[in-house]
Automatic annotation (TrEMBL):
Matching CDD domains: HP_PGM_like
InterPro entries xrefs: His_Pase_superF_clade-1, His_PPase_superfam
Taxonomic superkingdom: Bacteria
Name of this chain's protein: Phosphohistidine phosphatase SixA
A matching Pfam family: His_Phos_1
Organism: Acidihalobacter prosperus
Coiled-coil residue windows: none
Length: 175
C-alpha cells in the first residue's frame, strides 16, 4: 500500500508584475498557510518518506516550509522541473518513476494538474484544490510504476480555511 499527498503551493504574490510566473514568491497568507499545513499534516501522522516538488519559487517555498514543520531535511527534497505546468499524464509519469522504498510521497505542485490528478486517481469530482490544500489518498500498490487511473481512495482533504482547524502563525503545535 502506498500513500500519496498532493499539496498545491501556497498563495503567491502578484505584487511584482515584472517577475515571470516561475519566479512569483509567496504572499503573506502563503507564508502563513504553508507551515500551518505542514503542522496539520504532522499532527495527523502524515510523514512523507519523500517530498517531490516543482522548483518554481512559490512551490519551493511551500515545500521548504512544510518540510520544516515535518522535520524533513531540505536536502532530501527532490526538485522535479517537470511538475511545473504539468498535466495529468506528466504527473502520472513522474509518480510511476518514484523509488518503491518510498511509502508516502508528498508532491508539491500546481493547478490544474494536481486537481486533475486527484480526480483521475480516485474518481473524485474535486472542482479545485485550493492554494495550500492537501489531498491524501491511498493506492493499493507495492510499486509506484503500478499507479493507474481510478485505483486510489481519498483519505483526507485539508484546506487552509477550514475553521475547525484554524490556527495562526504563532499558535503552538499540540499533539
Amino acid at each position: 500500500m502506498k500513500t500519496l499527498t498532493l499539496l498545491r503551493h501556497a498563495k503567491s504574490s502578484w505584487k511584482r508584475p515584472d517577475l515571470g510566473d516561475f519566479e512569483r514568491p509567496l504572499n503573506g497568507r502563503g507564508r502563513t498557510d504553508a507551515p500551518n499545513m505542514g503542522r496539520r499534516l504532522a499532527r495527523r501522522g502524515l510523514q512523507p518518506t519523500r517530498i517531490v516538488s516543482s522548483p518554481a519559487l512559490r512551490a519551493r517555498a511551500t515545500a521548504e516550509a512544510v518540510a520544516d514543520a515535518l522535520a524533513y531535511p531540505h536536502a532530501r527534497i527532490l526538485w522535479e522541473p517537470r511538475i511545473y505546468e504539468a498535466g495529468v499524464q506528466t504527473l502520472l509519469t513522474i509518480l510511476r518513476g518514484q523509488a518503491d522504498e518510498d511509502a508516502h510521497l508528498l508532491i508539491v505542485g500546481h493547478n490544474p494538474g494536481l486537481t486533475m490528478l486527484a480526480n483521475a486517481l480516485t474518481g473524485d469530482r474535486l472542482d479545485n484544490l485550493p492554494t495550500a490544500g492537501a489531498y491524501t489518498l491511498t493506492l493499493p500498490i507495492e510499486q509506484w510504476r503500478a499507479t493507474d487511473w481510478g485505483i486510489g481512495t481519498r483519505t483526507l482533504l485539508m484546506v487552509p480555511k477550514d475553521p475547525a482547524e484554524a490556527e495562526t502563525a504563532t499558535s503552538p503545535v499540540t499533539g
